[in-house]
């Protein structure tokens, strides 16, 4: 491989980083800041009062809950989209929507999925986002991200890392507002979660849909009970 | 000091050198008077179905092998035609023994045009058990389903902990051909350590998932929550698109079943199956 090719690939990688950082940052218009994924109830019932408890909660979701399942679904969507397998993509989309375990987690995932596809179609068009629109029906957020990232030629490991970084960043940010914790506590939490995020992204990059599965029952119950919470900042 | 009988109970019966297989197919339909009648019954291997006399059609599944271990396969298929109503339960709690090789497979396929209450008694995983369970449901758009699966990790009364094993529980529910609900539970390795995690079971060792799909599913969420509140377990309920999903986490099987029974009675408008009350 000549220097020219290596340089061209490095530039392409950098372009990929630019896109992922743009799409998966808190300012991308999907309304991520309005969802706590049930964490608000975990704070309300006293489970999450410290940085340690916050890190444990998010770490569990990555190892045994929705963080892992989202990464597996994003990977499956990425693969179907990269292969131009639009029937396969439709199946992943149907499964991902059916797997949302509560009304609010469903709202959180489907609203963001829809908003993500709309913003991409407007500012970052690609065939994959047109295909998602043609498939119609419920579009879960990880499926939208995985399909679009492949449509833009972004690598699967980078896509999963970007998705999980957004997932973790949003939960930590919600916790800073709710517990409350200081900005430095938030950074400590993110630093401590880095190994799990990297490991989960790497594991999910090699996964198939048969690897779906977790057991974060109490996190699901927290989301169910959040629906009954009297005073709340978040929609989930 | 465990006595000889309780020690033996840990092991699958000696006669169980052969891998166990069983299959039941039950079909029910409504007669001209709207009464639910048996339409078809097929049973093979170590699976049997009893249909005790009583109000309503209630099928009781029996595993004549007395439990499951790695390599075993149990299949149940239930077809409920339009206008018919049936309940299917199990004779006893299903015990899943330590697996020396492979996984126990439990495949349940339900096709519902009328109403089905799928109410097997709890499954108890012994330490070292490996179980893959799958629930596949095809529903007509206006059909009604109540499905409950309760799982207890270890014989909690004697302090048993599941420190190694596998538990997978996959639900795929289609209504009018569309996948509307799915669940993918997977715990592997030191299950007890994972149950201790705050987002998993917070140290609980018994869990139940419950799904009620009916025209009035969303209207019943508040009353279901009130019943759960009274149950002394960690639990929640949520409803959307004509389905009501519930999860319960309890310290042990007995506490779980005590909380579950009134909920089941509420959602089916009749008592729990008679075998549950033994």
UniProtKB/TrEMBL annotation, chain A:
Keyword Ion transport applies: no
Pfam families in UniProt: UreF
Domain of life: Bacteria
A cellular component annotation (GO) from this entry: cytoplasm
InterPro entries documented for this protein: UreF (IPR002639), UreF_sf (IPR038277)
GO molecular function, one term: nickel cation binding
Main location: cytoplasm
Keywords: Chaperone, Cytoplasm, Nickel insertion
Assembly with partners or alone: UreD, UreF and UreG form a complex that acts as a GTP-hydrolysis-dependent molecular chaperone, activating the urease apoprotein by helping to assemble the nickel containing metallocenter of UreC. The UreE protein probably delivers the nickel.
Function noted in UniProt: Required for maturation of urease via the functional incorporation of the urease nickel metallocenter.
Family statement: Belongs to the UreF family.
Protein's name in the database: Urease accessory protein UreF
Natural source organism: Nitrospirillum amazonense
Lineage: Bacteria, Pseudomonadati, Pseudomonadota, Alphaproteobacteria, Rhodospirillales
Gene: ureF
Automatic annotation (TrEMBL), chain B:
GO MF assignments: nickel cation binding
Entry-linked Pfam families: UreD (PF01774)
Keywords attached to this entry: Chaperone, Cytoplasm, Nickel insertion
Coiled coil: none
InterPro entries per the UniProt record, alphabetical: UreD
Broad class of where this protein is predominantly found: cytoplasm
GO cellular component, one term: cytoplasm
Record has Cell cycle as a keyword: no
Keyword Chaperone: yes
Compartment(s) of residence: Cytoplasm
Protein function: Required for maturation of urease via the functional incorporation of the urease nickel metallocenter.
HAMAP family xrefs: UreD (MF_01384)
The protein's assembly and partners: UreD, UreF and UreG form a complex that acts as a GTP-hydrolysis-dependent molecular chaperone, activating the urease apoprotein by helping to assemble the nickel containing metallocenter of UreC. The UreE protein probably delivers the nickel.
Membership in a protein family: Belongs to the UreD family.
Protein name according to UniProt: Urease accessory protein UreD
Source species of the chain: Nitrospirillum amazonense
């Amino acid at each position: 491989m000549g220097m020219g090719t290596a340089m061209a690939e490095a530039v392409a990688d950098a372009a990929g980083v630019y896109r992922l950082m743009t799409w998966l940052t808190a300012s991308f218009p999907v309304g991520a800041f309005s969802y706590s994924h049930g964490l608000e109830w975990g704070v309300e019932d006293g489970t999450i009062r410290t940085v340690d408890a916050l890190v444990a909660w998010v770490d569990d979701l990555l190892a045994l809950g929705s963080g892992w399942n989202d990464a597996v679904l994003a990977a499956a969507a990425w693969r179907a989209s990269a292969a131009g397998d639009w029937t396969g993509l439709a199946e992943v989309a149907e499964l991902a929507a059916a797997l949302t375990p509560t009304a609010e987690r469903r709202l959180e995932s489907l609203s963001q999925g829809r908003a993500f596809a709309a913003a991409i179609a407007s500012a970052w068009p690609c065939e994959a986002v047109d295909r998602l629109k043609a498939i119609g029906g419920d579009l879960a957020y990880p499926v939208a991200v995985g399909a679009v990232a492949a449509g833009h030629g972004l690598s699967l490991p980078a896509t999963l890392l970007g998705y999980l970084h957004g997932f973790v960043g949003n939960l930590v940010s919600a916790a800073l507002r709710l517990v409350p914790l200081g900005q430095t506590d938030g950074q400590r939490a993110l630093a401590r979660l880095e190994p799990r995020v990297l490991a989960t992204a790497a594991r999910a990059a090699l996964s198939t849909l048969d690897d779906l599965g977790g057991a974060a029952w109490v996190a699901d119950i927290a989301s169910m009970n959040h629906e009954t919470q009297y005073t709340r900042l978040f929609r989930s | 000091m465990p006595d000889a009988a309780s020690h033996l109970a840990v092991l699958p019966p000696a006669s169980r050198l052969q891998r166990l297989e069983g299959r039941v197919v039950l079909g029910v339909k409504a007669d001209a008077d709207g009464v639910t009648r048996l339409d078809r019954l097929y049973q093979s291997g170590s699976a049997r179905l009893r249909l005790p006399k009583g109000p309503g059609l209630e099928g009781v599944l029996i595993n004549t092998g007395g439990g499951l271990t790695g390599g075993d396969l149990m299949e149940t298929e239930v077809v409920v035609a339009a206008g018919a109503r049936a309940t299917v339960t199990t004779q006893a709690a299903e015990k899943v023994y330590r697996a020396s090789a492979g996984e126990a497979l439990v495949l349940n396929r339900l096709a519902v045009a009328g109403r089905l209450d799928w109410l097997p008694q709890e499954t108890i995983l012994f330490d070292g058990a490996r179980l893959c369970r799958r629930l596949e449901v095809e529903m007509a758009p206006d059909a009604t389903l109540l499905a409950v699966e309760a799982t207890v990790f270890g014989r909690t009364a004697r302090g048993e902990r599941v420190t190694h094993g596998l538990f997978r529980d996959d639900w795929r529910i289609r209504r009018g051909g569309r996948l509307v609900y799915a669940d993918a539970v997977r715990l592997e390795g030191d299950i007890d350590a994972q149950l201790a995690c705050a987002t998993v079971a917070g140290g609980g060792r018994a869990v139940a998932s419950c799904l009620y799909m009916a025209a009035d599913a969303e209207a019943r969420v508040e009353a279901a929550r009130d019943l759960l509140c009274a149950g002394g377990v960690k639990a929640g309920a949520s409803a959307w698109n004509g389905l009501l999903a519930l999860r319960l986490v309890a310290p042990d099987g007995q506490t779980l079943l005590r909380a579950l029974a009134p909920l089941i009675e509420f959602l089916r408008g009749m008592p729990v199956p008679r075998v549950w009350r033994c």
